[in-house]
Design a protein that fits this description.
The complex is a heterodimer of chains A (66) and B (265). By secondary structure, chain A is mainly beta. Chain A has one domain: Ubiquitin-like (UB roll), CATH 3.10.20.30. Chain A has 1 helix and 5 strands. Chain A has a 5-stranded mixed beta sheet, with no helix packed on it. Chain A is globular. Chain B has a single domain, classed as Aldolase class I (TIM Barrel, Alpha-Beta Barrel), CATH 3.20.20.70. Helices cover 34% and strands 15% of the residues of chain B. Chain B has a 5-stranded parallel beta sheet with strand order 5-4-3-10-9. In chain B, α3 links the parallel β6 and β7. The longest helix of chain B is centred in the C-terminal third of the chain and has 21 residues. Chain B is globular, with a radius of gyration of 20 Å. Chain B starts with 11 loop residues before the first strand and ends in a 22-residue tail after the last helix. In chain B, 46% of the residues are buried. Classes of the chains: A mainly beta (66), B alpha/beta (265). Chains A and B meet through β3 and β5 of A and β4 and α2 of B. β5 of chain A pairs antiparallel with β4 of chain B.
């Protein structure tokens, strides 16, 4: 299936979960927050949620800021 | 006498929560997470701001959160990067979903050159976020009328700028901040542009309740030493405010007796 992740095309097999995607990207669910098709998702609470073809993901984290 | 009004020298109350430090610290632009950590520690701050950004999925790097002890510091996410109310509300909701307490430093800066806050969009976003249960701390132009509107909307502080973000130019808006302090019923936090301990001392001397500093601590070879210097600046200014500064005069007023000179008058 084809998705968009942080503005880039991303291909993955059907049935990929949020937890698997984050693991693949080297990210800890506790340290990020997601938007899937503009819905805000707590990543740590949703690791078993399956992603779908055409999903548009934003993976967001805290960075230094004033 | 250290007590003036209901405040004591060592405690700042925002939204019913008590803080012993009146210095808030931003976490941006430090040369390393260790430098950030040492500046925070030396400054004695209890509130630290952070921003939200997209992860670089090709190079995720270290999360800076692991360098911030959440037991010790209240994480205050900002909405930096937002150009209008809609973007700011989105960032605030994301911060909350990321597990932060519902405290948000509202920051809407559509102008990329001076990063001046948009008063209309800030008020609009504040109203929405307060309705959703956020404690909103708005970064704002030093405009006493806007401060009143934001306070009436339910903001838990007002945060007028001393000078544009990152300029280190000090209390350029001093006269307007004076009016805001005189009229406000919520804590006044001077944010942005404070680049030296003397600047924060000046803000505190005129009665600001707190200050927020980032660039001045990050943009120095010794962030820990500068953190301590700012801590002392804030404390000195606060103490002077509580003690009560003497009036300014045009003509000299002798400090030594004007009698008993060793000469014939």
């Amino acid at each position: 299936m084809n998705m968009r992740v942080n503005g880039e095309d991303y291909q993955a097999e059907t049935g990929l979960t949020i937890g698997q995607l984050l693991h693949r990207l080297g990210l800890q669910a506790e340290r990020v927050v997601l938007e899937i098709n503009t819905n805000i998702i707590n990543a740590a609470d949703s690791t078993d949620t399956e992603l779908h073809d055409g999903d548009n993901l934003e993976i967001i984290q805290f960075v230094g800021g004033g | 006498m250290l007590i003036k009004g209901t405040e004591t020298m060592d405690s700042l109350v925002i939204a019913g929560r008590k803080f012993n430090s009146r210095l808030m610290v931003g976490t941006g632009k430090f040369s390393s997470n260790q430098a950030m950590q040492s500046a925070m520690e030396a400054s004695g701050c209890e509130i630290v701001t952070v921003a939200l950004r997209r992860v670089d999925i090709n190079n995720p790097g270290d999360s800076m959160l692991q360098y911030i002890d959440r037991e010790r510091y209240l994480l205050l996410p900002n909405t930096s990067g937002a150009r209008d109310a809609e973007e700011a509300v989105r960032l605030a909701r994301l911060a909350c979903a990321a597990g932060c307490e519902p405290w948000i430093k509202l920051e809407i800066t559509p102008d990329p050159y001076y990063l001046l806050p948009d008063p209309i969009e800030t008020l609009k976003a504040a109203i929405i976020l307060i309705k959703e249960g956020f404690n909103v701390l708005p970064y704002m132009p030093a405009d006493p009328v806007l401060a009143r509107h934001l306070e009436e909307a339910g903001c838990v502080t007002v945060m007028p700028l001393g000078a544009p973000i990152g300029t280190n130019r000090g209390m350029r808006t001093r006269d307007l901040i004076n009016i805001i302090i005189e009229q406000a019923n919520v804590p006044v936090v001077v944010d942005a542009g404070l680049g030296a301990p003397s600047h924060v001392a000046e803000a505190m001397e005129i009665g600001a309740d707190a200050v927020l500093v980032n660039t001045a601590l990050a943009d120095t070879p010794n962030p820990a030493l500068m953190g301590e210097a700012f801590k002392k600046g804030v404390e000195a200014g606060r103490m002077a405010y509580l003690a009560g500064l003497g009036p300014q005069r045009v003509k000299a007023q002798a400090s030594s007796p004007l009698t008993g000179f060793l000469r014939e008058e």
